[in-house]
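Subject: Interface between my chains keeps coming out wrong

I've been trying for a while to get a sensible model of this assembly. When I model each chain on its own everything looks fine, but I need the whole thing in one frame so I can look at the contacts. Pasting all components below, labels as-is. Any help appreciated, I'm running out of ideas.
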Amino acid sequence: MTVMEQRGAYRPTPPPAWQPRTDPAPLLPDAEPHRVLGTDAAAGADPALLLRLHAELVKGRRYNAQATALTKQGRLAVYPSSTGQEACEIAAALVLGERDWLFPSYRDTLAVIARGVDPVEALTLLRGDWHTGYDPREHRVAPLSTPLATQLPHAVGLAHAARLQGDDVVALAMVGDGGTSEGDFHEALNFAAVWQAPVVFLVQNNGFAISVPLAKQTAAPSLAHKAVGYGMPGRLVDGNDAVAVHEVLADAVRHARAGGGPTLVEALTYRVDAHTNADDATRYRGDEEVETWRRHDPIALLEEELTRRGLLTEDAVRTAREDAETMAADLRARMNEDARLDPMDLFAHVYAEPTPHLREQRDLLRAELAAEAEAVEAAQAAETTETAVITEGPR
Amino acid sequence: MTTTVAAKPATMAQALTRALRDAMADDPAVHVLGEDVGTLGGVFRITDGLAAEFGEDRCADTPLAEAGILGAAVGMAMYGLRPVVEMQFDAFAYPAFEQLASHVAKMRNRTRGALPLPLTIRIPYGGGIGGVEHHSDSSEAYYMATPGLHVVTPATVADAYGLLRAAIASDDPVVFLEPKRLYWSKDAWNPERPSPVEPIGRAVVRRSGRSATLLTYGPSVAVCMEAAEAARAEGWDLEVVDLRSLVPFDDETVCASVRRTGRAVVVHEAHAFGGPGGEIAARVTERCFHHLEAPVLRVAGFDVPYPPPMLERHHLPGVDRILDAVGRLQWEAES
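Reply #2:
Try treating it as a single job with all components included. I did that and got this:
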């Protein structure tokens, strides 16, 4: 039996019996976002998970700060910070198994490194020495995608291919609130639902697409409600509640792995920093709003619960902080080394074998580089002679 | 001793179907997906019988969304499959352009070779079938202008088979342009002994001649062959080069021909302005300048949106327009 047959073919009944194919009620998101921290349910959270999340979030925040600092030092071309959104970033990586795939957007560097990618390699795109710095197959992490929502259909295709081959691989694809307006978002969700592909779509609704607020982006009751139109469940979660995000995403991954098809998760969060270091957020939002969200900080929420349980020991705090500082120091040191560049790389991977006309252009660049090197050498030789003259000087 | 099996006439459509079938039979990683490719066998019936033979998972009808089809194929290729997608018509492939330009063409390069995308994008293209608006575009220039893609197009039944097999076997993404007005053209071709897999990137001399070279591809090859026959009455012995592959471009075969004849006309249906002919003329001029007796001319579609079917014959390069161009190749210098 093919996957398409398992799904059950749709046979329209003749009019006037047209009706919804399925009952939309079970697909609807709850009216209120799912929360764990600060509620009675928090007592049930696994202490090991709480501590792990805390350590990772602290490290993630430090990474954002360090990367932003590197832009000011000219070591990164640009950095889109995810400060305030660390709960979503970390949970997205932690819910996946080793063979699962992550499909990040450009703001999701934290999820990428939480998945095991080298923190420096994760910054290749933003440093500008190449586009993708890591081998996507090694950690099952797709390249950071800059064109919005275009990575979502890839996640669907990959998950579908895995399922066709009998592998229980799940793909988790990340997108922002602005990205939900793109056509590829629609097409990906539709394909995923029709194919019942094992995909989890995580929308981080951080309130802004650069400067454009959600109200100008959509008239939907919530972004999670969009799921219903595709025939998949929509879940709404407090994106700053790391335990709740972890729970909802883990559920969705389990559901997908068990053959239940895709889920759309909308995580309500806030981009505390500007869109990137190059953006000025004061032009479109007030300090008061930012302050409100700072009081709902993902790390603070975790720390309240850890304190309540007596788990936030001095040791735990120190270890988390030291780990973060070690990571930051390593990142700083390695990013302060000049990137190793080979201009000939421009031609190395366009095709499996360079085409004849690329070989011609490669030879042209090689000749230019040789001439450049020769000129530098000649200039150095001239300088040496000049220095010699000056050193010898007039007697 | 070899037994000669008589080759019966077969259509290009049949050869394409056979190529898909053989590729699917040879390699379980080959998956076909697109609109109407399953039960119906495609609007041009190129995927006829594949769903029945290989199942609907291997030859899948998708939702009607070209970006989604190509985007999903990217993910499938990332997981090790070898997808062949069908875009129903040239102009319906445009919604997939972002996937093509930003991901398909760039994935290998942006990942330093870690994620090659072995996928084939079949697109029926070109006019001459009386199609209404949006059914007759020649969109090859867009694809040629996108580094990372191979762009090929067959003009004969044998090449339709050989080039499609090569496209599917390629570890790079290939835009495979099918001249839809040649779908029903017939050639002696034996489906029991299909033609060899043609390497991508080689042009071929379809007709040898001494006076001038017609550089052409896809649907215009047959028109050029006809023009070459007609030219005999004018005393011209025309050579016809079928480019077959626009990317990579076979400068060697093209230049060898032009150096021999000293004159060249590029013929295609696509627009002249910013079209493939400009690139081809420039390459020939750059490489063969001292062998040229006249500027390289272009005979192409006018620089207008593709005309309505009742006017398309005025737009498409025909025998007369080709011969007129040949006549302008400064023959007076010869006498």
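Reply #3:
Confirming on my end. The mean pLDDT of chain A is 93.
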